[in-house]
Amino acid sequence: MESARSGQNRVGTGDLLKSASSRYLVESVLGQGTYGTVVKCTNVADNKTVAIKMMRDRGCFARQARAEVEALLRLQLLDSDQSNLVEWYGAFTCNQHVCLEFEHLDKSLLDFMKDRSYQPLLLKEIRPIVKQVANALDYLKAAGIIHADIKLENIMLVNHAKEPYRLKVIDLGLAHEASGAAQGACIQSLPFRSLEILLGLPYTEATDMWSLGCVAASLYLGCFLYPGMTEYDMMRYIVETQGHPSDTLLTPGLKTGSFFQYDGNSKNRIWKLKCTVLF
């Protein structure tokens, strides 16, 4: 049943999803976002637990689903365990939704931190996390793909009770080819958004590494490194902690003028960060 207000599928416990070859009993709703709903399901045929991401098969949602499937197809031959990328089983349509079937994982790093009341992790705990995500990004880079949304929610513990801190990267909803990276694109969740994306500069796979650095800092601090509510907040935090970006970096940015004021008469620096009032 769809909500008249949002058009999203109101899938719930006990509902049945059907593909051409399988039936899936919905056990619970794991999460809901802008582009879809993720549900925990049991494959009726073999009793296997899976996670199914459901996206509406129309408009921008259908385009997003097709883009994610294209990225998943490029990675399909990779060993999921070696690459630290979530294993994808396939796609089907059901009730006017594109459904992507994945292995079921334990919990996200965000939920893990919530469960421990955001108590910071030790360096010996953070180190294997960073290593595994970096490994996943290395595989993505080799495939020519930018993830574009590395954040705590998209890093999943596989089975923390049995294999502490073993994890996989999920959600290729914003992933795209590095060769097609469009200058000025709005990608990445705000607390993990890199300087080149904020400024509207050309970007590469390195933008994912910025996000990983922010993830590592969040785990160490128990809070976001840059807790900005707006892009200006983010830029202000970055300038305060890392210094003023050089003019050679700022001048070609498509969005530099949103944060910095141009002063062509200045002898030292032609771009100056706008004060809060001006912004």
Automatic annotation (TrEMBL):
<keyword id="KW-0808">Transferase</keyword>
<keyword id="KW-0067">ATP-binding</keyword>
<dbReference type="Pfam" id="PF00069">
    <property type="entry name" value="Pkinase"/>
</dbReference>
<dbReference type="GO" id="GO:0004674">
    <property type="term" value="F:protein serine/threonine kinase activity"/>
</dbReference>
<feature type="domain" description="Protein kinase">
    <location>
        <begin position="24"/>
        <end position="279"/>
    </location>
</feature>
<dbReference type="InterPro" id="IPR017441">
    <property type="entry name" value="Protein_kinase_ATP_BS"/>
</dbReference>
<keyword id="KW-0238">DNA-binding</keyword>
<dbReference type="InterPro" id="IPR011009">
    <property type="entry name" value="Kinase-like_dom_sf"/>
</dbReference>
<dbReference type="GO" id="GO:0046332">
    <property type="term" value="F:SMAD binding"/>
</dbReference>
<dbReference type="GO" id="GO:0003714">
    <property type="term" value="F:transcription corepressor activity"/>
</dbReference>
<comment type="similarity">
    <text>Belongs to the protein kinase superfamily.</text>
</comment>
<dbReference type="InterPro" id="IPR050494">
    <property type="entry name" value="Ser_Thr_dual-spec_kinase"/>
</dbReference>
<dbReference type="GO" id="GO:0005737">
    <property type="term" value="C:cytoplasm"/>
</dbReference>
<dbReference type="InterPro" id="IPR000719">
    <property type="entry name" value="Prot_kinase_dom"/>
</dbReference>
<protein>
    <submittedName>
        <fullName>Homeodomain-interacting protein kinase 2</fullName>
    </submittedName>
</protein>
<dbReference type="GO" id="GO:0004713">
    <property type="term" value="F:protein tyrosine kinase activity"/>
</dbReference>
<dbReference type="GO" id="GO:0007224">
    <property type="term" value="P:smoothened signaling pathway"/>
</dbReference>
<feature type="binding site">
    <location>
        <position position="53"/>
    </location>
    <ligand>
        <name>ATP</name>
    </ligand>
</feature>
<keyword id="KW-0723">Serine/threonine-protein kinase</keyword>
<dbReference type="GO" id="GO:0003713">
    <property type="term" value="F:transcription coactivator activity"/>
</dbReference>
<keyword id="KW-0547">Nucleotide-binding</keyword>
<dbReference type="GO" id="GO:0003677">
    <property type="term" value="F:DNA binding"/>
</dbReference>
<dbReference type="GO" id="GO:0005524">
    <property type="term" value="F:ATP binding"/>
</dbReference>
<dbReference type="GO" id="GO:0042771">
    <property type="term" value="P:intrinsic apoptotic signaling pathway in response to DNA damage by p53 class mediator"/>
</dbReference>
<dbReference type="GO" id="GO:0016605">
    <property type="term" value="C:PML body"/>
</dbReference>
<dbReference type="InterPro" id="IPR008271">
    <property type="entry name" value="Ser/Thr_kinase_AS"/>
</dbReference>
<dbReference type="GO" id="GO:0045944">
    <property type="term" value="P:positive regulation of transcription by RNA polymerase II"/>
</dbReference>
<keyword id="KW-0418">Kinase</keyword>
<keyword id="KW-0371">Homeobox</keyword>
